[in-house]
Amino acid sequence: MTATAPPRQAPEAGPGSSKTAAGRRLRPRAIERLRQIGLPYLLLLPALIAELLIHIVPMFFGIVISFKNLTLFFIRNWSKAPWAGFDNYRAAIKIHEPIGQALLHSFWVTLAYTVLSVALSWLLGTAAAILMQDSFRGRAIMRAIFLVPYALPAYAALITWTFMFQQDTGLVNHVLHDQLHVTSNKPFWLIGDNSFWAMVIVSVWKSWPFAFLALMAGLQNIPRELYEAAAMDGAGVWQQIRKITMPSLRPVNQVLVLVLFLWTFNDFNTPYVMFGQSAPHQADLISIHIYQSSFITWNFGSGSAMSVLLLLFLLLVTAVYLLFTSRKRGDADA
Amino acid sequence: MQPSPMAQPKSFLWTRRVVLTLLLLFVLTPVYVMLSSSLKNLQDVQGSFKWIPHGLTFRPYVDIWKTVPLAHYFVNSLIVSVSATVFSVVVAIFAAYGVSRYRFAGRKVFTVTVLSTQMFPGILFLLPLYLIFVNIGNSTGITLNGSRLGLIITYLTFSLPFSIWMLVGYFDSIPRDLDEAAKVDGCGPFGALFRVVVPAAIPGIVAVSVYAFMTAWGEVLFASVMTNSSTRTLAVGLREYATQNDVYWNQVMAASLVVSVPVVAGFLLLQRYLVAGLTAGAVK
C-alpha cells in the first residue's frame, strides 16, 4: 500500500453538516471521492497534532540534544550549545568512571525493582482474579476495595506510605518493634538498604490492582461451557484453573506483563514522592537518576543521552519479548 | 455472574478466604492510616504510632487550607484535569471513529505509533518538551512553560493512546448497519458519529473519561517541572506540607484524603464501565 497524502482542502464537515446532505448529492463524483479519502485523515488530525507536539517532535529533539553540550547557560538558546559528538554517550557507558558507574548501578537497581514488583503484582492480581471468578457474598464490595489503590492519586498514596515508613512515628516500626517484637530496634526504612524494599512493597501495592482489573476483564471472555464440559469430565476446581483458566489468560498476560514492566521500569513517582529529589543510593531508580543529572546539575545533554539509552534498552526488551512470547503462543496454538 | 456449575472443594474455599483476607489487610491498611491519622491531634501523630486515636478532632481539616494554599492548588488541578479530559476524549472519539470505520493507508502505522508512545519513558520527553515550551514562549509569546495550557496539552496526550485503543474496541462492537442506516437517512459521517455511534458507546466514553481524569489528576513528573507557584497542581503542592520544619502528619493525611475522595468516589461509581471497556478492548 502506498501512503496517500491527506488532501489539503479538507471537507468543511462539522456536526452541522447533515443539513447540506441534499446539496452534496449534486456534487461531482471527484470531490466526493476526495472527501472519502480525506475524511479518515481529518478525523485523525487532532490526535496526530497532539502526539507530534508532545511525543514525536520532543523525542527527536531529545536525540539531537543528547549530542550537545547543553547546560543552563544555553537553555534559552539551545541551538547555540556546542556539539559534543558522542561524548555524552561515552561518559554514560564508561562503567569504570563515576558517571557510567552510577548509571550502571541505577540500571541494576531498577531492573531488580521492576522484576520483583511485576512478578509480585502479577501473582497477587492473578490470585485475586481467579479466586473471585465465581460469585460469593461480598464479592462486589471486595472488588471495589481492591481497586482503591489504583484509583487513589499516586502522590496521596505514596505520602501515606512515607508516613507509615517513618522511623519513630510510623505504623511499620510500631507493628514490627512494639507489637510483634520482630526487630530489636526501630530500623530506618527511607534511607539505607531498607529503602529498596520499602519501595518494592509500595510499588506492588500500587500496581497489583491494575493486574487484577485486566485479568478480571480477561476472565469474562472465557466461555462458561468450557468449565461445564471440564466439570462433566470430572476435572476439579484446581485442575480447571490449570487447564482452562491459565491457558485462556495467556493473551491478556502477554500484554499485561509487558505493560507492567514498562511502567515500573519508567517509574518516577514512587522514589520522587518517597525520598524527594535525592533518592538513597540503594533506591536510585533510573528515572530519578536521569532527572537528577538533568534538572539538579542542569546538564541536559548528559541526561538526554541517558534517556536515549534507556529508550533503546526498552525497545530491545519489548522486541525480544514480543518475538519470544508470540512464537510460544504460536507453538501452543499449533 | 452465575453460580459455579460445580461444588467447590474445601481447599479452594479456604485458600480463597485466607488469600482475600490478607489482600484486604494489605490494601486497606494505608487507607485506615490515612483516615485515622487525619482525625488525630498533633501530639498523637508526633509520638509512636497508635492504631486508635486519642480523641477525635476535625482541626486538621480546618488547618490544611491555611498551612498551604491548598484551595488554590485544588482549583489548578481541577481546571487542568477537566480541560485535559474533555479535549482528550473528544480527540480520541474522532480518532477512534476514523480507525474503526475507515480503511486507509497508514491506519496500522498510526495505531502502532500512538500505542508505542505509551511505553516511552516520560523523562525522555520531559527535557526536550521543557526546552520547546521555553523556546516557544521566547519566540511567540505564548506561555506554555509554567502555564496551565502547557500542562493541559501535555496531559491530554498521556491518556490518548489508551483512550483511542479502548474506544476502537467499543466502536467496533457497534454494528456498522446502524451508522449506514443513519447515512441513508441523510446524516453525514459526523451526523452518524454523534447521533448513532457516540450515544451507543456512552459506557466506553465514560470509562475513558474517568481514566483521562485520573491520569491528569495524579501526574507528578511533568507537574513538578512545568508549573510555578501560581499554576502549581496538587501533585506538587501536597509535598509542601512535608517541607515545613515540623511535618504536620495529621494535616498531610487530611489533605491526602481530601484530594483523593473525588477521584476514588468517581472511579468506584464508574468502575463497571471500565471493566466493560477493557473487556471490549481485549476481545479484539
Explain what this protein looks like in three dimensions.
The complex is a heterodimer of chains A (334) and B (284). Chain A is mostly helical. Chain A folds into 2 domains: 1-65, no CATH class; 93-333, Orthogonal Bundle (MetI-like fold). Helices cover 69% and strands 0% of the residues of chain A. Chain A has 15 helices and no strands. Chain A has helices at 21-24, 29-65, 87-93, 98-131, 139-146, 148-151, 154-164, 171-179, 194-219, 224-232, 237-248, 250-265, 269-275, 286-296, 300-333. The model of chain A is unreliable at 1-19 (pLDDT under 50). Chain B has 284 residues and is mainly α. Chain B has one domain (40-283): MetI-like (MetI-like fold), CATH 1.10.3720. In chain B, 74% of the residues lie in helices and 0% in strands. Chain B has helices at residues 10-37, 42-46, 59-67, 70-101, 107-116, 122-140, 148-172, 176-184, 189-200, 202-218, 221-226, 234-237, 249-283. In chain B, helix 7 packs antiparallel against helix 10 and helix 7 packs parallel to helix 13 (249-283). Chains A and B meet through helix 1, helix 2, helix 4, helix 5 and helix 6 of A and helix 1, helix 4, helix 5, helix 6 and helix 7 of B.
